[in-house]
Design goal:
Largest sheet: 8 strands, mixed
Number of strands: 8
Oligomer: single chain
Number of domains: 1
Strand order of the largest sheet: 3-2-1-4-5-8-6-7
Shape: globular
CATH architecture: 3-Layer(aba) Sandwich
Helix content: 25-40%
Order of helices and strands: HHEHEHEEHEHHEEE
Structural class: alpha/beta
């Protein structure tokens, strides 16, 4: 197993411009018809994959209400807590870290309204005094950081030796440029300036970064869109994909 599990990365990965962009959306984050509407549509699809991988990795009953009971979870780039709250409801003791203080403020307020005890932190992951977690997730974040290799190293450093990592990100394809960047932003489905297509990573690139951190991909699925099915898990990874990994 890689030493990444015990030796945290020290490089700064937060892009201040990216943090400011998403921090400006904080007040609107939990509005399913607001600027984060696409995330609200995407979240159930991601959760379906995450739940499947939790059951496979930890051997939990697929009908169990709280398969993460007694386990810890860390969501990196948590925004205002769209994934943290479902993970808490699945039984985990959840920590969420985000680059934007505004997002963490909104996350704390919403968790309090929801009666959920979630540990939220603002700032660089490696600057937090955190231990290791059974589950580490990071959804649509790696394409926004300054140093993807250091970022993955930071995720690996927070993962227990027998833990599960879940990561999702847009693919760098012609289809994603046309639909996620050009169409979605121009049509107002995603706030303008959210995506920089040149920073998207394809599955081979992410797999290589994970391998460098000592992690092996267990499963990978595309997140596709169709008029009939909406967003759904698919073999088609042209737009977006989500994967599960563990230490080799």
């Amino acid at each position: 197993m890689s030493n990444a599990s015990t030796a945290p990365a020290t490089k700064t990965t937060i892009d201040p411009n990216e943090a400011a962009h998403f921090g400006a959306l904080a007040a609107d984050w939990w509005d399913p018809r607001g600027s984060s509407a696409m995330l609200h549509k995407l979240n159930p699809v991601r959760l379906g994959f995450i739940r499947q991988q939790i059951d496979l990795h930890f051997g939990s009953d697929e009908k169990a209400m709280k398969p993460l009971s007694g386990k810890t979870a860390l969501d990196v780039g948590c925004g205002a807590g769209l994934l943290c709250e479902p993970l808490a409801r699945l039984g985990a003791a959840v920590t969420g870290v985000d680059a934007a203080l505004e997002n963490i403020t909104a996350a704390k307020a919403h968790a309090a309204q929801s009666g959920l005890d979630i540990n939220y932190r603002a700032g660089e992951l490696t600057a937090q005094n955190l231990g290791q977690f059974d589950l580490v997730s990071s959804m649509e974040v790696i394409e926004h950081v300054t140093d993807p290799a250091a970022f993955v190293g930071g995720l690996a450093a927070r993962l227990k030796p027998d833990g599960l990592l879940i990561l999702s990100t847009p693919n760098r394809t012609t289809a994603s440029k046309l639909l996620l960047v050009e169409a979605a932003e121009r049509l107002g489905q995603v706030p303008r300036g959210t995506h920089d297509w040149d920073k998207f990573l394809n599955p081979d690139e992410v797999t290589a970064l994970l391998a460098d951190a000592g992690l092996n991909v267990l499963a990978i699925e595309g997140i596709a869109f169709s008029p009939l099915s909406g967003l759904h898990l698919s073999e088609n990874k042209a737009l977006n994909y989500i994967l599960a990994a563990r230490f080799s």
